[in-house]
Amino acid sequence: MKVAKKKPAPKMAERKKVAAARRPRKRERVGEVAFPSERRGLRSGEQSGDLQGLSHLEAADSESVDELIGEGNAFEADVVAGVESAGDADEKEVRYARGAGG
Predict the structure, then answer these.
(1) Number of domains in the chain
(2) Angle at 69 between CA 63 and CA 75, to 5 degrees
(3) 76 and 68 Cβ atoms separated by less than 8 Å
(4) Distance CA 67, CA 73 (A)
(5) Can you tell me the distance from the alpha carbon of 86 to that of 96, in angstroms, rounded to the nearest whole number?
(6) Which residue, among 91, 64, 60, has the nearest Cα to 76 in the 3D structure?
(7) In the structure, what pLDDT confidence band is assigned to residue 36 with cuts at 50, 70 and 90?
(8) Percent over 70 (pLDDT), the chain
(9) Diameter of the chain by CA atoms?
(10) Is residue 43 part of a domain?
């Protein structure tokens, strides 16, 4: 008994894709864009710090190094410790290391 081979399905001709007609874009001129008037009065110092509730006082640190370490904030504790140990570097006398030449 012979099994007849099936004929392959005829291939469909591929259609060419036609791009949709493009519409010209309307261009905006920079001079015509209106900016909200509420943002004009802000000074640079009032833009981000005040929104976060940051204090303007120099000694406004509320947490000590020990408290930060206790809370698991080792990075912040290291930063605070570095700032505290830095002192007033601009008030100290400048010291130079003398090299072999003199």
Answers:
(1) 1
(2) 90
(3) yes
(4) 9
(5) 18
(6) 64
(7) low
(8) 52
(9) 109
(10) no
Q: Is residue 84 part of a domain?
A: yes
Name the one residue in this structure whose structure tokens are 């072999």.
100
Q: Which residues contact 94 (CB under 8 A, 6 or more apart)?
A: none
| pLDDT category of residue 89 using cuts at 50, 70 and 90 | low
- The model's pLDDT over 6-32, given as tens digits with 9 standing for 90+, comes to 887 777 777 777 777 777 777 656 555
> Domain range for residue 67?
62-88
The alpha carbon torsion through 76, 66, 61, 83 (nearest 10 deg) reads -60
Is 32 a member of any domain?
no
Tokens of 91: 């008030």
Does residue 17 sit within a domain?
A: no
What's the Cα-to-Cα distance from 32 to each of 37, 39, 74, rounded to whole Å? 14, 17, 51
Say if CB 68 and CB 77 are below 8 A apart. yes
